[in-house]
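TA notes, week 10

Several of you asked for a full example with nothing omitted. So below is the full record: structure tokens for the whole chain, then the designed sequence directly under it. When grading your own attempts, check the secondary structure regions first.
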């Protein structure tokens, strides 16, 4: 019988000195494909949040400063990772084999880490479906007598 897994998916941000950690996104997937799809969509979304375009609605009244081109660009790395089909297949293959997957990108003051960990899962107990029939009560005890209806004159 093949071993069943559930997948814990997290996107974390940590300070470079290791004093702070923030969970940016988390998800629990039931299949490797759902976990890989979540990883791909989440990294693409956070790449857009790290380096939004100037036309983004919430930046309409904010003064923008152009960043130097030679610095670290975690948004570009995350976006490239999310848009590469080979990376998606690599994650899918690792999770299908039951191995964890981690991907890390570093910025000036933070380290962003995508983690997908397989967790052993037991099969949920099977509950019989409700058929609409109920069994009569088998317990003995004091019961109310049914009220007799009298004809109205």
């Amino acid at each position: 019988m093949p071993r069943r897994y559930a997948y814990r998916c997290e996107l974390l941000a940590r300070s470079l000195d290791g004093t702070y950690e923030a969970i940016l996104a988390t998800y629990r997937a039931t299949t490797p494909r759902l976990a890989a799809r979540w990883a791909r969509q989440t990294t693409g979304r956070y790449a857009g949040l790290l380096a939004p375009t100037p036309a983004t609605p919430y930046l309409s009244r904010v003064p923008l400063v152009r960043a130097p081109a030679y610095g670290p660009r975690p948004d570009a790395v995350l976006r490239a990772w999310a848009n590469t089909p080979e990376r998606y297949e690599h994650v899918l293959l690792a999770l299908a084999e039951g191995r964890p997957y981690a991907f890390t990108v570093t910025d000036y003051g933070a380290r962003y880490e995508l983690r997908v960990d397989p967790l052993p899962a037991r099969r949920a107990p099977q509950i019989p479906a409700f058929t609409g029939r109920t069994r009569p009560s088998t317990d003995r005890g004091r019961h109310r007598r049914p009220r007799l209806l009298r004809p109205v004159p």
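Residues 137 and 143 are 11 Å apart (CA to CA). Use that as a sanity check on your answer.
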